[in-house]
């Protein structure tokens, strides 16, 4: 059961990395064709933007399940937590699809969906931060109350892992500001893929 569970978590992380790689490939292809022909194609824009939405949604799910302690603090999440993750995932994907449709195939409306999706993801990030801090405090308390022995020794790697996870997640939250600065002041239009990589 432990191996199957670990495989599920690893599979989720692998799917996120795969979606990111596919997004970058499709974006590079779109930029290359645009530089050659000077013409935009709606299907190329829809392709990479749709996969970017899939990647961003999977990214939120990965942070959520790790923040809640899946396979780190406890072997599985409770049904309400899975329901919350599924609901947030479905809502974020639906808003992302509407954003792509309005931004490429139609005129206007994309900003509204973008703001709503940003609000949904921000709420999920807030849940991740609260859950991560709670797990750090819970591990600290368990370490302080436990007697010296092999059992308490297993808690220290989990505690350090959560401290690293919290630092990395806070860095991830700050990345959009860096990406926006690069998009405005550093990166040319034909190097948009650099901004996507940073994001």
Q: How would you characterize this protein structure?
A:
With 199 residues, the chain is mainly α. The protein is built from seven helices and no strands.
Biggest sheet descriptor: none
Q: Would you report the number of β strands? A: 0
Indicate the low-confidence ranges by residue numbers.
none
Overall pLDDT level: 84
Note the gap between the termini: 35 Å
- What is the count of DSSP helices, taking H or I runs of 4+ residues? 7
Structural class, from helix and strand content? mainly alpha
Q: Gyration radius, to the nearest Å?
A: 20 Å
Tell me roughly what share of residues is in helical segments: over 70%
**Envelope shape:** elongated
Question: Into which percentage range does the β-strand content fall?
Answer: under 5%
**SSE ordering:** HHHHHHH
Task: List the SSEs and their pairings.
Elements: H1 2-37, H2 42-67, H3 79-105, H4 110-145, H5 150-153, H6 155-186, H7 192-198
Brief descriptors of the model:
199 residues; mainly alpha; 7 helices
How would you briefly describe this protein structure?
By secondary structure, the protein is an all-alpha fold. The chain has helices at residues 2-37, 42-67, 79-105, 110-145, 150-153, 155-186, 192-198.
